[in-house]
Automatic annotation (TrEMBL):
<feature type="binding site">
    <location>
        <position position="355"/>
    </location>
    <ligand>
        <name>Zn(2+)</name>
    </ligand>
</feature>
<feature type="binding site">
    <location>
        <position position="192"/>
    </location>
    <ligand>
        <name>Mg(2+)</name>
    </ligand>
</feature>
<feature type="binding site">
    <location>
        <position position="81"/>
    </location>
    <ligand>
        <name>Mg(2+)</name>
    </ligand>
</feature>
<keyword id="KW-0597">Phosphoprotein</keyword>
<keyword id="KW-0479">Metal-binding</keyword>
<feature type="binding site">
    <location>
        <position position="350"/>
    </location>
    <ligand>
        <name>Mg(2+)</name>
    </ligand>
</feature>
<dbReference type="GO" id="GO:0046872">
    <property type="term" value="F:metal ion binding"/>
</dbReference>
<feature type="binding site">
    <location>
        <position position="396"/>
    </location>
    <ligand>
        <name>Zn(2+)</name>
    </ligand>
</feature>
<keyword id="KW-0732">Signal</keyword>
<feature type="binding site">
    <location>
        <position position="397"/>
    </location>
    <ligand>
        <name>Zn(2+)</name>
    </ligand>
</feature>
<dbReference type="GO" id="GO:0004035">
    <property type="term" value="F:alkaline phosphatase activity"/>
</dbReference>
<keyword id="KW-0378">Hydrolase</keyword>
<keyword id="KW-0460">Magnesium</keyword>
<dbReference type="InterPro" id="IPR018299">
    <property type="entry name" value="Alkaline_phosphatase_AS"/>
</dbReference>
<protein>
    <recommendedName>
        <fullName>Alkaline phosphatase</fullName>
    </recommendedName>
</protein>
<dbReference type="InterPro" id="IPR001952">
    <property type="entry name" value="Alkaline_phosphatase"/>
</dbReference>
<comment type="similarity">
    <text>Belongs to the alkaline phosphatase family.</text>
</comment>
């Protein structure tokens, strides 16, 4: 039973501060194989008495009773952070137009998966949830309070004491105990909410470094980066790759890529050195050269931290000083490494920067990140066997971007509305053009003119709205665009995907993965 992680001593609370890369793996999906025989015990997680857990378990059990479930040797969970349904639609058009094709009739890879459902993303305490509570729902099968990771609803945000004894078992904990390989890759910091939910237990998602543990309520809780390095389950991650170096380096250590920037840790612990010290098979890499020199076909265990904070947007990756792999590259490497385990694996792949672009009302990068995320899904499907690998694609929450107006077919999705009719049909009532994509909230609702806020709508007549840095118009003035509360899509393929249908509670995703993989025991039958 995993308990809430505690430090041995109270931490001072302060203000935040020679191998080749894997070759293309040949698809093995062409020849159907018999379903694998899995010898997995099916654990009862520590959170099994939680009401949310029991309700979701019963819902999935009902589907199993009527449809059965095929065993899955491997599980891959793809999470497009903030990938709302309008984002998918707009990204479909964007990706098609980007390739010189008809955008409206184009299909993303995720849209070709045979099973689909809607996911209800509310948390225990908010109609519109954050990424921590939603990630915990998917990886641990319970709805929890927004801002908390891997702890039950009894834990309140930022209160360490309330989290004691209220930890959960994630699907990754259970996989490690069963001897499977595990991995996480993300374009965000690997201590950020979505990847953090796979291994950490904390009442505050922002406690990524010990420098973030501030205030009397932090108690003896461990920061998230430290929890990754000290994760007690099995032999730990085979791969953990993304951004977030700062939380692993001390304030006396210079960042290897950003001159003048130091690590954030106050406790003097270089967590990257601690990772390497675990054994000769543990390596730490920070750039594209180190990534290319890593033999992912071996038994290497990789901590890859390619940026001080989040990784570059795909649009900007080529300009990175030290060079960094793409999400497709990370996915390919992770599957190559995890596939070395004959007992199977569980992998999380997060397109984390879709969310960040949306928060900045920058639709161009949000759609481009979604396209890259979709290419990572295609890579995984090409590298795995549909007969033994369950792939689930979903989002943690929505955003407020919408598609509006009456643009004609073929109109650039990032452009201004062109109806193909006279000017009167292309202008708003104020006589100004408007974009197909806009946001309900964001920082573009007002702008500063001669030191004063001007909230009248900007005239976009001479503005190139397809430019990468263009920020779409927004309605409600906010410093950062907000999440949306509408349902998000779930797409699935492989054994267990038949359990994905209708409108589902988000925490049912855990139970689909757990039951299909044999890692989670079914609910006890009711006494007659």
């Amino acid at each position: 039973m995993r308990r809430i992680a505690l430090s041995l001593v109270s931490l001072t609370a302060l203000t935040v501060a020679g191998c080749v890369a894997p070759a293309e793996t040949v698809s093995v999906t062409e020849t159907p194989q018999p379903a694998p025989t899995l010898h997995r015990t099916g654990a009862t997680p520590v959170q099994a008495e939680d009401a949310y857990f029991q309700s979701a378990a019963a819902a999935v059990q009902n589907r199993i009773a009527t449809r059965g479930v095929k065993p899955a040797k491997n599980v891959i969970l793809f999470v497009g952070d903030g990938m709302s349904i309008p984002t998918i639609t707009a990204a479909r058009i964007y990706a098609g137009q980007k390739r010189g094709l008809d955008g409206e009739s184009y299909s993303l890879t995720m849209e070709t998966l045979p099973y689909m459902a809607l996911s209800k993303t509310y948390s225990n305490d908010y109609q519109v949830a954050d990424s921590a509570s939603t990630a915990t729902a998917m990886t641990s099968g319970v709805k929890v309070n927004s801002g908390t990771l891997g702890v039950l609803k009894e834990a309140t945000r930022s209160n360490c004491a309330s989290s004691i004894g209220n930890g959960t078992d994630s699907i990754f904990d259970l996989a490690e105990r069963e001897g499977l390989a595990t991995g996480i890759v993300s374009t965000a910091r690997i201590t950020h909410a979505t990847p953090g939910a796979t291994y950490s237990e904390t009442p505050n998602r922002d406690w990524e470094s010990d420098a973030d543990l501030r205030g009397g309520d932090a108690g003896d809780c461990k920061d998230i980066a430290r929890q990754l390095i000290e994760w007690p389950e099995g032999d730990g991650f085979e791969v953990a790759m993304g951004g977030g170096r700062s939380a692993f380096l001390t304030e006396a250590e210079a960042d290897p890529e950003n001159e003048g920037k130091m690590g954030s840790r106050k406790d003097g612990r270089d967590l990257t050195a601690e990772w390497v010290a675990k054994g000769p098979d543990h390596v730490y890499i920070t750039d594209e050269a180190g990534f290319a020199a890593t033999d992912f076909t071996s038994d290497v265990k990789v901590l890859g931290l390619f940026e001080r904070s989040h990784m570059q947007f795909e649009m900007d990756r080529a300009k990175d000083t030290a060079g960094e792999p793409s999400l497709v590259d990370l996915t390919k490497a992770a599957i190559t490494r995890l596939s070395q385990n004959p007992d199977g694996f569980v992998l999380l792949v997060e397109g984390g920067r879709i969310d960040h672009a949306h928060h900045g009302v920058n639709a161009a990068r949000a759609l481009d990140e979604t396209d890259e995320f979709d290419q990572a899904i295609k890579t995984a499907m090409d590298m795995t066997n549909n007969d033994d690998t369950l792939i689930i694609v979903t989002a943690d929450h929505s955003h407020t971007m919408t598609i509006s107006g009456y643009p004609q077919r073929g109109n650039p999705i990032l452009g201004k509305v062109n109806t193909g009719l006279d000017d009167d049909h292309m202008m708003a009532q104020d006589g100004k053009p408007y974009t197909t994509l806009s946001y309900a909230s964001g920082m573009t609702a007002c702008r500063m003119v001669e030191g004063e806020p001007d909230c009248t709508r900007e005239d976009l007549t001479d503005v190139d709205t397809t430019a990468p840095n263009f920020q779409q118009p927004s309605l409600v003035f906010m410093g950062s665009e907000t999440h949306g509360g509408d349902d998000v899509a779930i797409f699935a393929t492989g054994p267990g995907s038949e359990l994905v249908s209708g409108v589902m509670e988000q925490n049912e995703i855990f139970h689909v993965m757990g039951r299909a993989s044999g890692l989670v025991a079914g609910p006890e039958p009711e006494a007659e």
